[in-house]
Amino acid sequence: MGYYSRARGEISFNPELPRYAVRGNPIIYKYLEGEDIVLDAEFSTIVAPEDSFKAYWIKDNLTELVAEILRVNPDTLFEDFIEIEGEGDGSGEPDLWRLKVKDGKVVEVRPTMVWPED
User: Fold this and answer.
1) Could you tell me the pTM of the whole model?
2) Buried b (16+ CB within 10 A) or exposed e, 99-113
3) CA dihedral for 90, 52, 97, 116, sign (positive or negative)
4) d(CA 53, CA 21)
5) What pLDDT sits at residue 24?
6) Given this model, what pLDDT does residue 44 score?
7) Of all helices (H) and strands (E), which one includes residue 101?
8) How is the chain split into domains, by residue range?
């Protein structure tokens, strides 16, 4: 059960992870072929999957990966965001949100919906 979401975008970071930090690191290795976020082969970008998926754990997984990247290099800078759009829960409110890294922490950003007055 549950519903699916689609994501787009990427979070790039600089400097890229050194190769020695990836080899034998179970946390980083897990995200080379992750289900909801994927670390690219250049070890410098976190990307959203191309297919729809259940996004229940995406924030927790991104938090784990970012923490490990910062453990390897505390001076890492992150840019951009991943945008997630869900099928919705039937309440009528759009299920649209973003994840980005701010001051080394993963934050969830939700839009504010304003209806025009009749």
Assistant:
1) 0.88
2) bbbeeeebeeeeeee
3) negative
4) 28
5) 85
6) 93
7) strand 96-102
8) 5-109
Q: Which fold has domain 5-109?
A: Alpha-Beta Plaits (3.30.70)
Q: Which two tokens stand for residue 28?
A: 């980083």
Q: Quick one: DSSP state of residue 115?
A: P
Residue type, 79: E
pLDDT tens per residue across span 46-76: 998 888 888 889 999 999 999 999 999 999 9
**Tokens 């923490």 label which residue?**
67
Q: How many CA atoms lie within 13 A of 81 on its CB side?
A: 14
Q: What is each CA distance from 63 to 58, 68, 77, 114, in whole angstroms? A: 8, 9, 15, 30
Question: Which sign does the torsion angle of CA 71, 24, 54, 96 carry?
Answer: positive
Interatomic CA distance for residues 104 and 118, integer angstroms: 43
Round to whole Å and give the CA distance between 25 and 52: 27
The whole-angstrom separation of Cα 117 and Cα 109 is: 25
Angstrom distances, CA of residue 65 to CA of 58, 91, 111: 10, 32, 25
10 Å CB burial of residue 74 (0-12, 13-18, 19+) is exposed
